[in-house]
Amino acid sequence: MTENKNNISILKLSYSELNGIENVIPEDTRLILGFISPDIDFREASARIKNISGNIPLILTSTAGELCNISNGGRHPLYNPADENRQSIVLQCFSSDIIDDVDIHSIELSDPGMDPEQRTALIEKEITKLRPSFPLNYQNCVAYTLIDGLSRSESFFMEAAYNSGKLPCLLIGGSAGGKLDFQNTYIYNNNEVVQNKAVITLLRFKSDIKIGVFKSQNFEIKPYSFTVAEADPANRYIKTVVRKDTGDIVDAISELCRHFNCAEDQLEKNLESYSFAIVINNDIYVRSISGINFSSREIHFYCDLAFGDELVLVKHTDFLSSIEKDFAQFRKGKSGELLGGLFNDCILRRLFNQNELSGVKLFDNIPVAGFSTFGELLGVNINQTLTALMFYRVKPGEKFHDEYIDNYIQKYSAFKEFFLKRTINQMKHIMKIKDQVWKSSRESIELFSEFIEKSSQKATENETFLTKINENFIALHHNIDDSNTEGNNISNELIKLEQSAGTIEQVLYSIVDIAGQINLLGLNASIEAARAGNAGKGFGVIAKEVKSLADKTDLSVRDSKESITNLINSMSQLQEQCDIIITSQVSAKNLGRDLNDTITRLADNSKIIENSISKNAVEVKALIDNLDSMLKTIDILASSSV
Asked: Counting C-beta atoms within 10 Å of the first and last residue's C-beta, which end of the chain has fewer, N or C?
């Protein structure tokens, strides 16, 4: 059940085998790292293993799959089957000939619902409290770090670690794994089972032990990239990106469809052979897509992403040939005896390459163990990568070179710079957006300035026009007053004329009466003349003429009376019309007065508006001058930036 070679022992057993096991841990063991399948009661298993290990420092984590190249005394493929209810436990024991000292710390990861900056600040505060029990030297110390895989805080933790300056050595490890229902992950920190925490195990190695970092991933960079714009680091999704060729902020899903020249319903199929990565000092650190929500326009990832991150497109390459090539490159420059390795391998790497896992034969003669994580740590958070800490015993005079350890000062600076560069990218894009907004604002303000100038001209024209209208209404008002006076005079004269016509009518009535009497008198005279015979003939002629005159007078008077009556009726109607006109003139006069007051107020308001527009025009001109100055400053800053 165990493999013990050069002071690294590996024990693989089932949960049921924990009962009654004694003396299975080598006496000189200085540290035990254990990996427990998610089907086991983690708390109970931790208690039992701790009871077996005694005072030996013990770090345990739940896994999404165990890595171990031995089983029941025989050699088997590195990737153990990840079957349901497998009840598997792997313990890796390091002797005191390898480990000089161990110091374990647990770090609270803060509330996942908090603002990202606050989360980072709180984690940094916790890390700052660390008081390592021995000096940390990057050449012989590492910080083996396990993080709760469901906390979604790997990037926050790594940024906080660099900000704190408390861990000047390699940070390597992974996120505690579990079932793919993503319900629980656990870590045991030598004292208790913890969740939502990071457990940092500081290791110092013996003087003749050299460590090397083996990293393998089957991807190659493609000539396509973008900068993340709108993103939610806590929930690990992006919505918009900044196109490299145009600098425009565009919908992330639409941008990928544009790149792959496909419809949205074909995007996921097109992405099957691809992933994304960040590049740090020419090394790629994969950021894998976990899913696409087309309705909310979100692309979800397995790693934290933030505004300002630059993502490059990477394509899958052959799994086996990649790991063989990477391991051959790793072995170059290394003398001494390879003692074993501690492996951290992303569950995605296991899932995406299932058919090739059994073909990994490189480590058959090397005692290695580890687990499939929910994401690895190697300076920053990574997906779909195998990261391993390899242990060598090197004699005096033997050459040993490791890219990561020998150049860790530069690596550390690059990792720290990554987070700083993200902030710089954020500021650059914010400044660029502000620049675009300012330029757009200036153009809008210029148009507004032209509008104000034209409005000012129109206001002046309106004021002149209203003044003329006002003058015309004043003249009209006077005309109405004059017409009203004349109307009253005419009305009075018509009344007098009507009265005179009435008097004439009365006179005519008297004349008619006189004519009647004359006619009667003429008739009587004719009768008397007839009686007188010849003596009355002359008088009869006169009586006849008198009667004829009376008849003519009566006829003439009756005609005149009819004319006078018609005249009186016409004058009455004229009087009524004149009264209506006078009433209308009074109304028109009142309306004209009100309209005149309104026009006067409009003219006054127009003057006020003209003055206000003139004042605003001056202020807008000053604003344009200030914007010009700002834009010049931005251009200077842009040309001076690195």
From this structure: C
Least confident of 200-204, 293-297, 404-408, 430-434: 430-434
Does residue 561 have a pLDDT over 70? Answer: no
As a whole number, mean pLDDT of residues 461-481 equals 64
CA distance 292 to 299: 5
* CA pseudo-torsion sign 184, 188, 192, 194: negative
Task: Print the domain residue range for 341.
Answer: 2-214+327-406
Residues 190 and 126 grouped into a single domain: yes
Helices (H) and strands (E) in the chain, counts: 10, 30
- Residues 120-129: pLDDT tens digits? 999 999 999 9
Other beta carbons within 10 angstroms of residue 514's beta carbon come to 14
Q: Looking at the DSSP assignment, which residues form a beta bridge with residue 142?
A: 170, 203
User: Which of 347, 32, 370 has its CA nearest to residue 188?
Assistant: 32
Domain annotation covers residue 106: yes
294/347 same-domain check? no
Q: Name which of 232-241, 369-378, 574-583 the model is least confident about.
A: 574-583
More confident residue, 202 or 361: 202
Q: Of 315, 346, 380, which one is at a domain's C-terminal end?
A: 315
Q: Going by DSSP bridges, is the β-strand pair 170-175/70-71 parallel, antiparallel, or unpaired?
A: unpaired
Can you tell me the distance from the alpha carbon of 7 to that of 339, in angstroms, rounded to the nearest whole number?
8
Assess whether 65 and 165 both reside in one domain: yes
Task: For residue 623, name the pLDDT band (cuts at 50, 70, 90).
Answer: low
Q: What is the distance between the alpha carbons of residues 342 and 203, in angstroms, rounded to a whole number? A: 13
412 part of a folded domain: no
Nearest to 174 by CA among 375, 410, 459, 17: 375
Helical H segments across 391-535, by residue range: 403-406, 408-532
Return the number of other C-beta atoms located less than 10 Å from residue 22's C-beta: 6
d(CA 247, CA 229): 11
Cα 156 → chain centroid: 22
- Identify the DSSP state of 362: T
Beta-carbon contacts of 227 under 8 Å, excluding residues fewer than 6 positions away, are 241, 242, 244, 308, 309, 310, 311, 425, 429
Strand order in the sheet with 289-293: 231-232, 237-238, 298-301, 289-293
Is residue 557 within a helix (H) or strand (E), and if so which, with residue range? helix 537-640
pTM: 0.70
Nearest to 551 by CA among 521, 530, 528: 521
Contact 260, 250 (CB under 8 A): no
CA dist 170 → 68, 128, 167, 400, 401 (Å): 24, 17, 8, 18, 16
